[in-house]
Backbone:
């Protein structure tokens, strides 16, 4: 794997994840109480012995830069690195990144300096665990120019993804972006070619692209240079390559994979981690751990609490409250009499003085304390970092609104999920 370079695409403005991306890049969005989205592909790379890693981004990259600098530091005796490459103006190109392929194109001069054979192109907003060594080995065995990682898909979800058809050798011969009706039926394939059993192939007759690719380095350089008007890998570069007799192969991934690019999918993926007896994704696999920043926080403290089907991060203080089917991030503070159900609380970046005291203790600046005040009810919500929620607040979406923007009041509603903004203040007695 010393001859492999990884490029993680940080995405654009992250509009589907807004307002979680209001003040941060999409890969920097917190996940599972203590991680960030970028930790998933970076950890997969490290576990796969790929240590040359670039992260391409252009929006709100300050917190992403800080996280990567504090988290990933390789020995000075290795060539390993994790570096952020932000969009920048150059004499050749004064523009922002125009798409996934354009982002890589603008940094070709840097990528070419490395003596590598393959480039692995990864996405920064997926939740999965994958050994890229097997991915690259399949690419080399088939003599491919490009290999796409694909997942088997049933008919119910197939039209939400880019689908492809393959021949009997696993070579990709046709693409279709989110097809419907008859066009969808035309994309059915015999997935036993990729290793599914006949029973599985009947249940999953489609293959969907994961947006993860292995390119031969020289092929990547050639395709990006000869088609400067093509800005997207999945929609333009790869279909055009397949049409011009490049060997484009499919690699079947049979594990858990979730695109968490929307508020609803992000919320569902986080809460699914609390599922019993077996969550779809586990952070407890010692053979392939997910890495993140070490914070050296104190252990969490529970004072007469009822907690069920939940994940609680480090450094939390919970007092005589009820927590059910929820995820609480680091430094979360929940006061007496609170009920938290089906909620993702991202926690806080710091402690206030007197954090262990009751919320009735008046602060000098007379503002709502950091955390969740006493006798508050929160159900089906996402509470972003450093939010200050007062006493006797109800965040329950009482009018069953599907979508709303109340930025001046400190919250949005997306797919019926209330999202309280980072640093928002929700006064005592508020009902949402």
Residues:
């Amino acid at each position: 794997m010393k001859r492999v370079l990884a490029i993680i695409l940080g995405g654009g403005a992250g509009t589907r994840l807004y307002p979680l991306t209001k003040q941060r890049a999409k890969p920097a969005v917190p996940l599972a109480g203590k991680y960030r989205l970028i930790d998933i592909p970076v950890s997969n790379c490290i576990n796969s012995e790929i240590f040359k890693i670039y992260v391409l981004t252009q929006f709100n990259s300050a917190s992403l830069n800080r996280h990567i600098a504090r988290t990933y530091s390789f020995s000075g005796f290795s060539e390993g690195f994790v570096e952020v490459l932000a969009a920048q103006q150059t004499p050749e190109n004064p523009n922002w990144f125009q798409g996934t392929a354009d982002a890589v194109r603008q940094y070709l001069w840097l990528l070419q300096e490395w003596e590598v054979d393959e480039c692995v192109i990864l996405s920064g907003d997926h939740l999965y665990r994958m050994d890229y060594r097997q991915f690259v080995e399949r690419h080399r065995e088939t003599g491919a120019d490009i290999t796409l990682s694909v997942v088997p898909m049933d008919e119910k979800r197939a039209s939400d993804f880019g689908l492809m058809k393959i021949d009997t050798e696993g070579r990709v011969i046709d693409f279709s972006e989110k097809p419907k009706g008859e066009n969808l039926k035309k994309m059915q394939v015999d997935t036993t070619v990729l290793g599914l059993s006949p029973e599985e192939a009947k249940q999953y007759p489609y293959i969907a692209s994961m947006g993860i690719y292995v390119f031969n380095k020289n092929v990547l350089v050639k395709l990006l240079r000869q088609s400067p008007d093509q800005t997207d890998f999945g929609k333009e570069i790869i279909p055009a390559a397949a049409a011009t007799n490049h060997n484009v192969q499919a690699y079947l991934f049979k594990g858990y994979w979730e695109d968490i690019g929307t508020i609803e999918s992000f919320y569902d993926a986080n809460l699914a981690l609390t599922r019993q007896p077996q969550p779809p994704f586990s952070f407890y696999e010692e053979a392939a751990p997910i890495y993140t920043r070490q914070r050296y926080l104190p252990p969490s403290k529970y004072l007469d609490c009822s907690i069920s089907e939940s994940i609680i991060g480090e450094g939390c203080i919970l007092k005589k409250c009820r927590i059910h089917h929820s995820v609480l991030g680091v430094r979360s503070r929940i006061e007496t009499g609170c009920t938290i159900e089906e909620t993702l609380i991202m926690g806080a970046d710091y402690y206030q003085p007197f954090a262990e005291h009751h919320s009735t203790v008046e602060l000098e600046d007379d503002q709502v304390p950091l955390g969740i005040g006493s006798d508050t009810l929160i159900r089906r919500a996402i509470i972003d970092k450093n939010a200050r929620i007062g006493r006797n607040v109800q965040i329950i979406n009482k009018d069953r609104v599907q979508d709303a923007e109340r930025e001046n009041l400190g919250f949005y509603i997306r797919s019926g999920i209330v999202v309280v903004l980072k640093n928002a203040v929700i006064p005592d007695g508020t009902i949402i």
Summary: DSSP finds eleven helices and 29 strands in the chain. The chain has a mean pLDDT of 90.
